[in-house]
Fold this protein.
Amino acid sequence: MTGLDIQQIMELLPHRYPFLLIDRVLELDPGRRILALKNVTFNEEFFQGHFPGQPIMPGVLILEAMAQAGGILVLPPDGSAAGKAFYLVGIENAKFRRTVVPGDRLTIELNVIRARGNFRKLAGRAEVDGQLAAEAELTLTGVDRE
């Protein structure tokens, strides 16, 4: 499957500004792999306090961007997950290798490494210009949306 633009992403994810952290999906192989993009701009609200004079994207928000991309990845392409949301329930082996600053293009790649029932375990990497910024294994679970 080809990529998704921001409008298509907002149809799939419940997140909205200022917490929607995926700008584009570049590649999507549903249930297997996703490559997504976050354009990091100086206008991001979190840069006001993290850190004044030396803005750095918080690592927890890099993980959240990975989780949002993972949410798109694990949605069945046939729409059978309508009324479901996927929640982040586990983070393992998270490591941060370089800072992410305004002007960076954060590319996020996730691969499904295990699927059992409503749970999906994903291996994720976030890079800037081919340099590893963060990596982690994420576990997501599907729940009914009310």
About this structure: The radius of gyration is 15 Å. Strands lie at 24-29, 33-39, 84-96, 105-116, 119-128, 131-144. The CA atoms of residues 70 and 76 lie 12 Å apart. The chain has two helices and six strands.
